[in-house]
Design a protein that fits this description.
The complex is a heterodimer of chains A (781) and B (170). Chain A is α+β, with helices and mostly antiparallel strands. Chain A is built from 19 helices and 29 strands. Chain B contains six helices and five strands, in the order E-E-H-E-E-E-H-H-H-H-H. Chain B has helices spanning 28-35, 80-83, 96-103, 113-126, 132-138, 150-167, and strands spanning 6-13, 16-23, 54-57, 60-63, 76-78. In chain B, strand 3 (54-57) and strand 4 form a beta hairpin. In chain B, helix 3 (96-103) packs across helix 6. The chains are: A alpha+beta (781), B alpha+beta (170).
């Protein structure tokens, strides 16, 4: 059915979810399964002297306690492979499948207790006795750069994981004669990913086939499949892996975890079905976080506000182990200049190990920190130069006539950072109008008359989307007339199945309801990268479109033989292939054509026909499609309490051609809510000894319905030249500028007090402390 | 299989009566999900903050992760699986609130949805004409990581309006 691109089609996924019939990991019936609970380290840094499971094994219902020594004979390697095989980091940066003689963060998995129920397994965990020799922990990442820092762990005793510089141009010259130089020391922290469904895995040993069937709540099913085969030394034909419904990912499920491989290995060793579902406390300590970055940066400008150069340094907290690479730090470093023309740039980056949970990408993946850094500098420069903040930005945005615009930096793929298209100044102009930027002074006066301090902030973001190298799709028309789309993309709640169905329906002349999207199942498709980098609609969508187009050609060619018409006169409508201008029902159904194409014993097929009614495409791109956003936040701040109310929020985004604006709106709203958490709430705290202090959702706050304002969303749709859909990614893009816009607005509201804000998130107590430190707590200057 | 102290309880869930022997330490969500197979009720935190496990107990919303199953002995419970039948049958087989969630994109991954629906069903019964702020306060104990709440709020407001119009005297 054509006309699907751009349709606000209600989602195909919704029916079962609304009835409570969705099948998430913990909903898969597993009546005979052993339930697993992990024994986790209570210490941030310790050698393990002895593990005594005897008291646990004596408990009723406990069937086994498994350590790395038990698994060792069943593993081809005990250490996790690096997630990015292109990484140049040494292999010792990763963790073992279970702790190997030492632990390096609170929450590291040491052993598995297997019992008849989860309750009994948890009883068993409490009864496993472990002797430790504790060691001092390295908690603050800045301490890694001091002389003789505490050793994070014995098997990779190097404080620095990676040290590198990014840059181009002559920053010394840029700063030497600059009319204006501003400097910022920034602390940025992003917490965990916190999908409402935590992680989980079910591994079923099949005695008849001597193979394993595994379901995992993951964003990368194929990566887990191949890594499990590698670590377990499995024949790839002995493992099937699929994702059930996934209750959100946001980065937490964008990695293969030691726990997943430990559970699969245990199921194989015991020849039993084994199930583990992460609880929320485990998610706080065992799932990845983004955490701490310290930026020391300067911006040089001409007197008229033109940027001359940017330089500085970044210290990045990598946690105790590296799972993929230093991708958060790399993204943040390469993205810092964002949408602006910055002729000279130099950034020294050091990623260091700490005795804390491993750091990996959370929605936004380093880009929000880059944006916050740049936008704090822009606000400081505007204040110094006495310019309007929006005007200063507009003055420096990459103008449309310079598109496509190449930054002299490289993305992880090695491809240049190449902004493919977009009109950034026009986005800002439209947004300023919509948010009535120019009318703010009047609103501020009204608020002040009522005793309220109101401020407005603006921030621009650019996010690389559609990460490659490819994504898979196989489109097949079935004899029933239904269409199956198989893809290595991962469905995790975004509405991807609906969007892919729309792309496919548009080519095949059927309604989206006739299309089944089967994603993330290694039995149906052998290659796939999965869900990350705001990539799936761009990459899998392009594969689906190209494959569906190829299937349409096959159907028309076969139909031309069946109804004796020239294939160029045939079109696909309402499930029929028919001669253009005739009623669809006068042609042949796509199911009937598929039935011929699937072959019949001894029946001949025309010579120019290739059997089968399917096509398989792996659309390739190493070049990221850059989406851009500009947000304006308007807030009121109570200088007595430090409380912040977001009064209005307006967001402009250009993600190229939108396939389903209903879904896009939802993604943008969710992105902004996540960013509000990063601006005001989400802090994963550790005490000075390395003990996590925020391990429940009462101590660690996510933005709730009363914290998130009604959001107004605006779009421009500049088609990307990089893919046949003209699409750019959506899912993370609007998280990028939120903390920058909100904290800019808070600072603006508190300008009468001389406030200067240099951190995200910022709590009411920290806002008050800032006011007090400035000597401004008792009233405006 | 039961290893700890257990008791026999009777629950009426979505109109069906169930009698089960349950361990006294099982919370209600455990029994709904694993003993009765009603897996539509989800567990997001098991400490009473996220609200995904919210069910209606004798018509009032309650966290099924914070309540022992034995405390629910004799209670009438409505879970997400039973919502479609409330004040029904409804055209299309879904409660108007469920239909509105679809129309206004009030769900993405769907994991928080059971708690959102049960909480809002209670709100709309208590307050047929809620303001946007009242809707937001009603679901302020339900966390959603996907939607930013806007689709949920819009769905609730539209449902309230539709139900008022449907019951208004001609």
């Amino acid at each position: 059915m054509t006309g699907q691109i751009g349709a606000r089609h209600p989602r195909l996924e919704d029916g079962p979810l609304l009835r409570g019939l969705g099948r998430f990991l913990d909903d898969i019936p597993a009546p005979g399964a052993l339930h697993a609970a992990f024994v986790r380290s209570p210490h941030p840094n310790a050698a393990i002297e002895r593990i005594d499971p005897s008291a646990a094994l004596a408990l009723p219902g406990v069937r086994a306690v498994v350590t790395l020594d038990d698994l060792r004979p069943h593993l081809a390697r005990t250490r996790m492979p690096l997630g990015f095989r292109s990484s140049k980091l040494p292999p010792t940066v990763t963790a073992s499948v279970l702790a190997d003689g030492e632990v390096a963060f609170v929450g590291q998995a040491i052993a598995i207790v297997l019992a008849e129920t989860r309750h009994l397994a948890e009883d068993g965990v409490a009864a496993v006795s472990i002797d430790y020799t504790t060691r001092p922990a390295l908690v603050d990442c800045r301490d890694a750069l001091l002389p003789n820092p505490p050793m994070v762990r014995a098997d990779h005793p190097h404080a620095v994981v990676a040290r590198f510089a990014l840059g181009y141009g002559d920053t010394d010259a840029a700063f030497a004669n600059a009319a204006c130089v501003v400097h910022e020391n920034l602390f940025q922290h992003r917490g965990g990913a916190h999908p409402i469904e935590p992680r989980g895995i079910l591994a079923r040993y099949d005695h008849a086939e001597e193979n394993l069937s595994v379901w995992s709540s993951t964003q990368m099913p194929h990566e887990l499949f191949y890594m499990a085969c590698e670590v377990l030394g499995l024949d790839e034909n002995r493992l099937k892996l699929a994702t059930p419904e996934v209750g959100g990912g946001f980065g937490a499920k964008y990695a293969v975890y030691p726990e997943e491989l430990a559970i699969i290995a245990t199921a194989r060793m015991l020849r039993r079905e084994v199930k583990w579902v992460e609880d929320r406390r485990e998610h706080f300590i065992g799932s990845i976080q983004e955490r701490d970055q310290y930026w020391d940066v300067s911006l040089a400008l001409d007197a008229d506000g033109r940027i001359r150069g940017l330089r500085g340094s970044l210290i990045h907290d990598q946690g105790a182990y590296t799972m993929q690479d230093v991708n958060v730090a790399y993204n943040a470093g390469t993205a810092v200049a964002g949408p602006y023309l910055v002729p000279a740039f130099h950034l020294d980056i050091v990623a260091v190990q700490t005795n804390k949970t491993p750091v990996l990408t959370v929605r936004g993946a380093g880009y929000p920190q880059a944006c916050f850094t740049m936008e704090r500098l822009m606000d400081a420069a505007a204040a110094r130069l006495g310019m309007d903040r929006a005007a200063l930005r507009r003055h420096n945005l990459v103008p449309p006539e310079k598109m496509p615009y190449e930054k002299p930096l490289k993305a992880r793929s090695g491809a240049p950072i190449w902004y493919d298209c977009g009109d950034y100044p026009a986005c800002q102009d439209e947004l300023l109008e919509a948010a009535d930027w120019n009318g703010f002074a009047a609103r501020q006066q009204v608020a002040r008359a009522a005793g309220k301090y109101r401020g407005i902030g603006i921030a621009h973001g650019v996010k690389g989307t559609g990460r490659g190298p490819f994504e898979s799709a196989l489109v097949r028309v079935m004899p029933s007339g239904r269409v199956s789309v198989f893809t290595g993309a991962a469905v995790m709640g975004q509405g991807l199945a609906t969007a892919l169905a729309q792309v496919c329906a548009d080519q095949l002349g059927v309604s989206p309801e006739k299309i089944s999207v089967i994603a993330g199942d290694t039995r149906t498709i052998t290659l796939g990268l999965g869900g990350f980098g705001s990539r799936q609609l761009v990459m899998a969508g392009s594969s689906v479109q190209l494959a569906a187009k190829a299937v349409a050609v096959k159907l028309r060619k076969m139909a031309s033989h069946m109804i004796e018409a020239d294939e160029n006169d045939l079109v696909l409508t309402d499930g029929f292939v028919h001669v253009i201008g005739t009623p669809p029902a006068a042609g042949k159904t796509i199911g009937d054509i598929a039935n011929v194409l699937r072959g019949s014993p001894g029946a001949g097929l025309p010579a120019d026909i290739e059997p089968g009614s399917d096509a398989h495409v792996n659309f390739r791109s190493d070049q990221l499609a850059y989406a851009n956003v500009c947000h304006i936040a308007e807030v009121e701040v109570d200088p007595e309490t430090g409380g912040v109310d977001i009064i209005a929020y307006t967001a402009m985004q250009d993600s190229g051609v939108l396939i389903n604006p209903l879904i896009v709106d939802g993604q943008v709203h969710g992105s902004i809510a996540h960013g509000i958490g990063n601006a005001l709430f989400e802090w994963m705290g550790y005490d000075a000894d390395g003990q996590p202090v925020t391990t429940n959702l009462a101590d660690y706050l996510l933005a709730g319905a009363t914290d998130v304002p009604r959001m107004r969303t605006l779009y421009r749709q500049t088609p990307s030249p990089l893919n046949p859909l003209g699409a750019k990614g959506v899912g993370e893009v609007s998280t990028v500028p939120v903390a920058a816009a909100i904290i800019s607005a808070i600072e603006h509201a508190l300008a009468p007090f001389g406030a200067h804000l240099a951190q995200a998130p910022i709590s009411p107590a920290q806002i008050l402390a800032t006011l007090q430190a400035g000597g401004a707590a008792h009233g405006p200057a | 299989m039961s290893w700890g102290e257990s008791r026999t309880i009777t629950l009426t869930v979505n109109g069906t009566s169930y009698t089960r022997e349950v361990e006294v330490r099982f919370h209600l969500a455990d029994v709904l999900r694993h003993e009765l197979g009603l897996t539509g009720t989800h567990l997001g935190c098991e400490h009473g903050v996220c609200g995904a496990c919210t069910v209606l107990i004798n018509g009032r919303s309650a966290r099924s992760c914070l309540m022992l199953a034995v405390q629910a002995d004799g209670a009438e419970i409505t879970t997400i699986e039973g919502i479609a039948d409330i004040d029904g049958p409804h055209a299309g087989g879904l409660h108007p609130l469920q239909e509105a969630f679809r129309e206004f994109h009030g769900l993405q991954c769907g994991f928080c949805t059971p708690g959102m629906l049960t909480t809002l069903i209670e709100l709309l019964r208590d307050n047929p004409a809620p303001t946007e702020e009242e809707v937001r306060i009603a679901i302020s104990g339900n966390l959603c990581r996907c939607t930013g709440y806007q689709g949920i709020v819009d769905a609730a407001l539209a449902t309230a309006k539709n139900l008022r119009e449907a019951t208004a005297p001609a």
